[in-house]
Design brief:
Helices cover 24% and strands 43% of the residues. It is α+β, with helices and mostly antiparallel strands. The protein has a single domain, classed as SH3 type barrels (Roll). The chain has a five-stranded antiparallel sheet with strand order 3-2-1-4-5, with helices on one face. The protein starts with a strand and ends with a helix.
């Protein structure tokens, strides 16, 4: 099973972006989203260092809510 995490873009440099979520910063590739209009502040789904899809703020919050619930259940 694969899991993509929502992160918010904080900086863009060419095909790379710095993204943050829950206090964690990662540098990711935007190469798979070259046909999308990606801007600082957008939310994207990240898997193994690649942004896979642009998502809405509501989708990002909903996903984190589900992930937090799964984590609480497994504790």
């Amino acid at each position: 099973m694969c899991l993509a995490l929502p992160m918010q873009i904080t900086n863009i440099a060419g095909n790379n972006a710095k993204c943050m979520t829950h206090g964690v910063m990662r540098e990711v590739s935007l190469a798979l989203l070259q046909e999308e209009q990606i801007q600082v502040g957008d939310y994207v789904l990240i898997h193994v260092g690649y942004a896979l899809q642009k998502i809405t703020v509501a989708e990002a919050l909903s996903t984190w809510e589900l992930i937090d619930q799964m984590q609480a259940t497994s504790d």
